[in-house]
Amino acid sequence: MTRGKRTQAAELEVRLLREGIVESIHHVQAVVCDNRGRVLSVAGNAETATFVRSALKPFQALGVTTTGTLERYDLTDRDLAIICSSHKAAIAQVRQVFNILWRADIDPSALQCPTPAGKRSPLEYNCSGKHAGMLAVCQQRRWALNSYLQRNHPVQQLILTKVAEMLRMPAEEFICAHDDCGAPTYFMQLGQMAALYAQLASGSSLDLERIVRAMTYHPTLIAGEGEFDTEIMRLTQGELVSKAGAEGVQCIGRVGEGMGLAIKAIDGSKRAKHAVAIHLLKQMGWISPSAAETLAESFMEFGKFKRLEVLGELSLL
C-alpha cells in the first residue's frame, strides 16, 4: 500500500433501530484503493490491520491457476468457483468439491479441514473447496498431501509468494496464523486488502481474470442462496466481485475499473459489514439505487420492527 499524506478519517457507525430507537451500535472502517495500491478514500484508518480470513480465497486460488493444475485435471470455472467459496454445503456445492478430488485422483480422506457439527464429511465444511484446490496442486506437483496445511509446505509458500508479489513486499514480513479450517491466513492492513481486490478486478492478469469470471458467472457456488456475496454478484451481473471474511471482513472489487473496497466491522459483526457495503457501494455509484434497495431489504431490514442505518461516508484523500 502506498502511503499518502493522510490515511485516516472518521469511521462509520451502524445503528440497529427498533421502531426508530437506537438499540445497538457498531463501528466500521473501510478503505478504497486502486490497483497500484494508492488509497483513494477512507473511513477510519487505512492502516488498521486484521486477519484477512476467507477474503484471501481468490488469491489462494492462484495456486491452481498458475501451475497448470486446471488444465492437468480438466477443471472448469465451476471448480474454480468452489475453490474460492465459503459454501453452505448444498448438494451441488459438495458435489463440486468432490469433483475436484475425483479428477485429481485424491481420496476425500486427504482433506484436513474439520467435519462440521452434525455433518458426516469434511467435504461439507465451508472451506473444503479451497482445501481441494490445494490438494490438487500438490498432486499435480507431486508434493506431499499429508502436510499441505503446514506453513512451510510448498503449496503454502507458493500462495504466499503470489500474494507478496501482488503487494510488492517480502513474503517473510507477513504475520501468519491458522484459520479455523487449519490453513494459513495473514494479518493485513485494510489498505492492502483493498489493493488486492483492486488488482483482482483490474483485468491485468489472465489468472486473476479467470478467477473473477468463475466467481461472477457462478455466484451461487461462492456462498449460497440468500447469502451476501452470492446476491450482490448476481444482482450486479459481473460488475462486482465480492468475498466475505469472518469477523467482520468484506472485500469487493469493481471489475474492469481497478478499484477495491475493504471493510472491517471492529466488533466482527456480519450485519454491520453488509450494511456498510450497501451504503458505500450506493454512495460510490458501484451499484444502482434499485440494487441497493433490493440488498437493503435482505440485509438491513429485519421484520417489521428492526432495521439498520449507517452514519458517515468515505473521505477522499
Describe this structure in words.
The protein has about 325 residues and is of the alpha+beta class. It contains 13 helices and 13 strands. The strands form two sheets. Strands 1, 2, 3, 4, 8, 9, 10, 11, 12 and 13 form a ten-stranded antiparallel β-sheet that branches. A hairpin with a 5-residue loop joins strand 6 and strand 7. The longest helix is centred in the last third of the chain and has 15 residues. It is globular and about 55 Å long. The mean pLDDT is about 95.
In a nutshell, what does this entry contain?
By secondary structure, this protein is an alpha+beta fold.
Q: Tally of extended strands?
A: 13
Shape designation: globular
Structural class: alpha+beta
Binned, the helix content reads 25-40%
- What is the residue-mean pLDDT, rounded to a whole number? 96
Low-pLDDT residue intervals, each spanning 5 or more residues: none
Distance between the termini: 14 Å
| Major β-sheet annotation | 10 strands, antiparallel
| β-strand amount | 15-25%
* Series of secondary-structure elements, N-terminal to C-terminal: EEEEEHHHHHHHEEHHHHEEEHHEEE
- Helix tally? 13
Rg over CA atoms, rounded to whole Å, is 19 Å
